[in-house]
Queue: 3 jobs
Job 1
Amino acid sequence: MLKFRHLFLLGTLLTGLFAQAGTIVLDGNYQGKNIFVQNPFSEAGVGFCVFQVTVNDKISTDEINSSAFEVDLSVYNLKVGDKVTIKIMHKDGCTPKVLNPEVLKPKSTFDIVKQSISPDGTYTWVTTNETGELPFVVQQKRWNKWIRVGEVMGIGTPGEHEYSFKVVPHSGENIFRVKQTDMSKRARFSESISYTDPSVPVVTWTYDKSNKVVHMSSGSLYEIYDQFGNIVKRGYSTDIDVSDLKKGLYYLNFDNKMGDTFLKR
């Protein structure tokens, strides 16, 4: 009974010791590299700050009782792109420092195997060599610039993956591509692909001065700029209410045309 009481007391003391401890959580994808941690002494000056590390909820067997240690991810049978959650539990009053957390961040490494646009406007692309979940941004070349028209989340693993997105074409030839950006902020692009839908009519427009409405002959993406080059309205519509715009000259981009003007009085 006395032995049991001592064990119970020891457990209570340990619980109290780490009750105010902190946990650093690292979420990401395995990129084939390990994590390095700078580990200061505890606030009491006895022992080191970190007392436990887990990888995907499995307790790490790495030697952590030193001023710096490595979390070896190669022992967990991870494949490049697999999800990883590392929890670094430390005592109160001290904070370990992860020296290279960026190695768990997804990188844009995709290759395009093939891409196509079907007659109904479904843009399909097949990728390989992805190593982390990153969105694919669908872009359309319009008005001498690339416009973001949608987004599809990437799967992020190395095998082949097929994605699709329904595009809204303008009259004439359309050009599309997908873009992906990782933490380096450097964007990577697919090759562009062209598509023409003969059923899409050429859009014309008129300005109703009395009702202060720009009317287009059919629905279209549009942008309206003021004379200083600021975008004041954008969207997709047939009738654009411009009653809230200040008096002045405005420039209209619509369909596949740009630079038309109207004067708001």
Note: Residues 110 and 130 are 5 Å apart (CA to CA).
Job 2
Amino acid sequence: MLNTAKHLVLLFENTGEGIILTNGLGNVVIMNPAAEKMFGYSADELVNKSIETLIPQRYSGHHAGLRGNYATHPSNRPMGQNRDLFGKKKDGTEIPVEVSLSHYTQEGELFVIAFVVDVSKRKEIEANMMQQQVELEKVSNELRKLNAELEAKVEERTIILKEALQQLEHSQIELSEALDKEKQLSEIKSRFLSMASHEFRTPLSTVLSSASLLAKYKKEEEQSKRDRHIEKIKNSVKHLNDLLEDFLSLGKLDEGKVDAQNVAFDLKELIEETADEMNGLTKENQQIVFNFSGPTKGNTDKKLLKNILINLIGNAIKFSDINTCITVNGQSDGQKVTISVADQGIGISKEDQGHLFSSFFRGANAVNIQGTGLGLHIVHRYLTLINGDIHLQSELNKGTTITFTIPVN
């Protein structure tokens, strides 16, 4: 089992965004290394200091009033709300930032989490775009003037004008694409931070509350109550491990550390073995039915195929109710194998189906069910590595069938 506490600490310490925790009075409780580096302070220098220490003086008075209103009516605020915000470093220099706010209450006291991103690079790109626009207008005006003065060379000047405009437009497109990519990355990071903040907080709160209550049940006849809280703790720790496994898998894929290793094995045996293993995770009276037809021998990456099956069957279990059937069908023709996983669960809306293979995306009807929104994205990435394709059919409240095909010759 992963050391969950250690991974949580590493996640806090190694994330590239600044994280600052303040109490209800606006005093700094803790900050991560990225925030220390961003503002030039050590964490010890800011503990118990007002958050206004990190805000330029011309804004700090107004910010104190906003902070007071937030403490009275706290709410989550995502990044990218078209606000120009600035932070003040230890040496007095200012940096443009984006800030996402979240909050929670511990023992009756309000705590506010600020996720801070330095957007200096984006601002620099935007400034370059403005400069390019000015230069484009300047060159256009100069060329028009020159064209009027030198009517005898109209054709030559027209060619020069077109070439200059093409070059400047190409430069403008490159800058726009760079800005779009940076904004998309910022949005993905913001979605990740918001998701991680929510998904980690819930099981951690369960562990803390159950651990506290365990100490109160000391009598022998209270064993059933102790068992109930122990089960809650075990389920919460498993959920945290699942979250971390998704993050680690995505990280390895992004770093190019996952390669397909083709080996020969029995396809039917692997699929049936995986379905049997997943039986231990089914809900009350859920059944996994397995069928396979065609040649059973195949050649592909055995580990990636098993991970894909675990993810899809796990989703079918999670998004289906008790007393339902999950069907796993495999069909091989010796050259390729087609496998489908069908459930009788909550289904997926037409609007959401086009986004399901994106990272951190969750269907509108699944927001109250635990998960990272990474599972199908990772499945799609794994299938790309083994030259597979995937298709989805679903109807709300009737179920979902996910079918994928991979070469096995």
Note: The chain has three domains: 4-118, 207-254, 262-407.
Job 3
Amino acid sequence: MPDADSSRPGNPLTVLCLASYEKGQRTLEELKRQGCRVYLLTSLSLQDKASWPRESLDDIFYMPDHEHEWNLPDMIKAVSHLARTVSIDRIMALDDFDLEKAAMLREHLRLPGLGESATRFFRDKLAMRTRAAEAGLPVPEFTPTFNYEKIDRYLKTVPGPWVLKPRLLAGAIGIKKYDDPQAVWSRIHSLGDEQSNFVLERFVPGDIFHVDSIWFGGQCKYSIASAYGTPPLEVTTGGGIFTTLIMDQQSATAQSLKSLNNKVLTAFGLRDGVSHSEFIRAHADGAFFFLETSARVGGAHISDLVEQATGINLWEEWAKVEVASAYQLAYNLQTERNDYAGLLVSLARQEWPDTSTFTDSELVWRMQKRHHVGFIVKSSERERVEHLLASYTQRVRAEYHASAPARDRVSE
């Protein structure tokens, strides 16, 4: 725990941020605006590639990596060495894949925040399923892939199709869908010693939604519900075009989603931070099911979508929540707008796509990234956003779209 003096507003809070991928610049900037000492530990492979806000960093350190994977014992030694001369008060994981790293460091240095067991609820899809079921929350029927007798009984009693999900990958990455039990068994056997790192679950056809929220003191301070266009699993496995749309927050659907999100994150024990949660509404009967959650800002530029619609930047609010929690101060959310907005992101055939022909006045954000095309449109009228998003999807598919292998992440 930080010394008593370091938790008073008169003393700078020292925050170590972890980022194995390039993201979270707005959090780093806001931490510095809040008067913190800010240190960043990131991947060595990003040293000459990432655009970090150096003016907001007291120092930056690099971990040798292989495709953004770090040697965790070496990481603990490195941060412990830093702690000899820098008194670290808080650790923040800026990417989903950094949550376990941050938890290990908190446990080792005995710092506040999610420890290793608590972090499982926000990273491990099996832990999410088990805890949600224990709390009486609706989840698709599932089974761990530990015991063959239980897997066999599951496949004989739970109707297919089924999805086999990696427990510790983000979003829809690595998820495979199967209609035949023998195909499931073949895949499980092919995994060898890795098969225990998966969870088997009934595939529920339906509409996918996400709720992005801010939590402080164990209470939801803000949440906003959105509806995906093409389901993320189809985008990841089929190379589709990613879209999502801010919903009418007063609608019955949005209210139900936000209520379910509150129950999930209360059951999972999130106290201070931000979250991105996903839910499905079954086509068969309209029932809602919990899919997954996280203790970080949603990727794929969802934070930009929320900011365009409301004026709230989730990366910045996360920093404010962290500081308020450390100093035991009140957290007050900035004034919000309530516009509608839609987001589109796609891989592009062109190295640097020319999107100058998109000239609608509602176009408020345009992606500038190699082999990508992306837009955010905003309006006070939901129907206008829906129309533009549908039109842009058709144009992007015809003029730019390129599919990608399932291992590729949607640009964040």
Note: The longest strand covers residues 206-216.
